[in-house]
Amino acid sequence: MKSCHPREDNLGQSHQTVTLTVAQAIVRYLAVQYIEIEGAKTRLCGGGFGIFGHGNVTCLGEALFDHKDVLPLYRGQNEQGMGFAAAAYAKAHLRRRFMFCTASAGPGTANLLTAAALAHANRLPMLMLCGDTFITRLPDPVLQQLEHFDDPTLGLNDAFKPVTRYWDRITHPAQIIQSLPAALNTMLDPADCGPAFVGLPQDVQGWAYDYPLSFFADRVHRIRRQAPDIDEITDAAAVLSNAKCPMIIAGGGVQYSGAVSKLTAFAETHNIPVVETIAGRANMLNDHPLNMGPIGVTGSDSANAIAEQADVILAVGTRLQDFTTGSWTAFAHDAKIIGLNVARHDAAKHMSMTVIGDAKLAMTALGDALDAYKAPSDWTISAQEKRAKWNDYVSKNTRIGNGPASYAQAIGVVNALCDPRDRVVAAAGGLPAEVTANWRTLDIGTVDVEFGFSCMGYEIAGGWGARIAQSEKEPDKDTIVFTGDGSYLLMNSDIYSSVLTQKKMIVLVLDNGGFAVINKLQNNTGNESFNNLIADTPTATLQVGVDFEAHARSLGALSETVETPADLADAFARAKSADRTYVICMKVDAYEGWTTEGHTWWEVGTPGISDNTKVTAAHTEIESARSRQRKGV
């Protein structure tokens, strides 16, 4: 029985307490956490995703039922998909709101490992409340328990330590008074943001405790803005003010800081060309005169060309992943890099000059220190000429009829017909590269290309989470998911979730007969096609196509199959007007139609010796580019 009662401490002062189970206290605490966003107070936790089992249904399930109106619980079909949805939700809310995921002890919790790794790689907040084995050990070994003979404290949940920013196992009811605020503070920290894991032993979940009533008082959080060090600003300004060919790399952190307008104003004031990372796509509109396109392995000729020539590179809010740096071949060896980032670890990469602080505050301070500096006009004009050539290439690449049906043509069709505020979601395989290179940004913050963990299966589940977030802000807009047949087969059940919850998505399933982009990598390194395309899988002795349209219909979605990109345009219009999730299927060529321009070198391991002369030749060619790789200076 829950009860409130006063008690006196040893100084005779009265304190109100309330008796709750651990599970009840956790849920009650989450329900009273708020965040201030643009002057408005909103609930910090948007709810959760849950699949119940014996490890979380009896206690945590009971507590969540009592709060189902303020913390809606979305029933997932697969725990991994729940985690992807939570990550996409957080990304759509610019890390200012989060969802929790609850899973049962054992395989249910294990299914969250991949999603936790994705959230960790992408620096996204997600709270996991997962069942654990009994602290008393009296019933050991229990159902789904992993026994370690030399360490009885070690269990499955310990596997989450490498893929979370915060990890705890609750062994006493009082511990959540410290643990929950610590978890939330980690998830809201701009520099340390990432997933938090709280293991909840099945017995402890139900233990009652007299909690201080003050623990459940409304709390309003604000995202910390760290001011930069004035000496770092001075040093960076001195370097940048002498630049002849400066460039800005705009990463995902620009959006998380709310610094998009500041970045644009900074670039305009100082006439500096801007390139975007994959996570930073949609930092600038496609037609902005200083937007030189995406950089790196999936980038543009224009961005990569100026990156090779730049003498000073201001890297804002990016972790400088290898797809951005071309495995560190994209820049001149003597180029100076200024790492402007709230996270020290990211700011200091490759011996960059650091400006550690919030992007919005730091760019304001750096702009003031630069005073009247402007990049030479001939440098910026040259960059714009390169961008104009890239625009011509993209127009040709995405044009209907430019060769067999391709990812690029499908992207062009959707890009031409979607609303500027529609949200695009893609991940893994060939589509993130094609979307990054060919998508023309129509509005700020409308692109989610998950390439931090490059995780197959994110697309549809992430689309569901993104749509939940979108429905809270812009319910009249659409979430558009690009997925290949490989990712669809890996994880598609959240089509059903979206139908059940009336969170409509438009899903494009582009079928190229297998894992075609890895087949392309296989061929480009001299190897024969093997085990990637269904047609080249020796153990696939019966060649059977998948009826994606029928499958999507069986999950409750509307669906149709089109033959050509021209037909796709009409189907997309029907999908826009539909009242529920709509799946459009189209075959694309596995070998032709790829975006062939704009790629930097990317380091992959290739055989140093081989009986296949094509493999040997490819190895030699790939290794020849290694001389361009920066060694950290």
Task: Describe what you observe in this structure.
The protein folds into three domains: 3-221, 3-Layer(aba) Sandwich (Rossmann fold), CATH 3.40.50; 230-390, TPP-binding domain (Rossmann fold); 398-587, 3-Layer(aba) Sandwich (Rossmann fold), CATH 3.40.50. It is globular, with a radius of gyration of 26 Å. A six-stranded parallel sheet has the order 6-5-7-8-10-9, with helices on both faces. Strands 15-14-13-16-17-18 form a six-stranded parallel sheet, with helices on both faces. It contains 24 helices and 24 strands. Helix 8 (230-240) packs across helix 14. By secondary structure, the chain is of the alpha/beta class. Pfam families: TPP_enzyme_C, TPP_enzyme_M, TPP_enzyme_N. Residues 233-366 form the Thiamine pyrophosphate enzyme central domain. Residues 49-144 form the Thiamine pyrophosphate enzyme N-terminal TPP-binding domain. Residues 449-584 form the Thiamine pyrophosphate enzyme TPP-binding domain.
Write the layout of secondary structure elements.
Elements: E1 3-8, E2 14-21, H1 22-31, E3 33-37, E4 40-43, E5 45-50, H2 60-65, E6 73-75, H3 79-92, E7 98-103, H4 107-110, H5 113-121, E8 126-132, E9 166-169, H6 176-188, E10 195-201, H7 202-206, E11 208-212, E12 219-221, H8 230-240, E13 246-250, H9 253-256, H10 260-270, E14 274-276, E15 291-294, H11 301-309, E16 312-316, H12 322-325, E17 336-341, H13 344-347, E18 353-356, H14 359-370, H15 377-397, H16 407-417, E19 423-427, H17 431-438, E20 447-450, H18 458-473, E21 479-484, H19 485-490, H20 494-500, E22 505-511, H21 516-524, H22 548-554, E23 558-562, H23 565-577, E24 582-587, H24 613-624
Parallel strand pairs: 3-12, 5-6, 5-7, 7-8, 8-10, 9-10, 13-14, 13-16, 14-15, 16-17, 17-18, 19-20, 19-21, 21-22, 22-24, 23-24
Antiparallel strand pairs: 1-2, 2-11, 3-4
Helix pairs in contact: 3-5, 3-18, 8-14, 10-14, 11-15, 16-17, 16-23
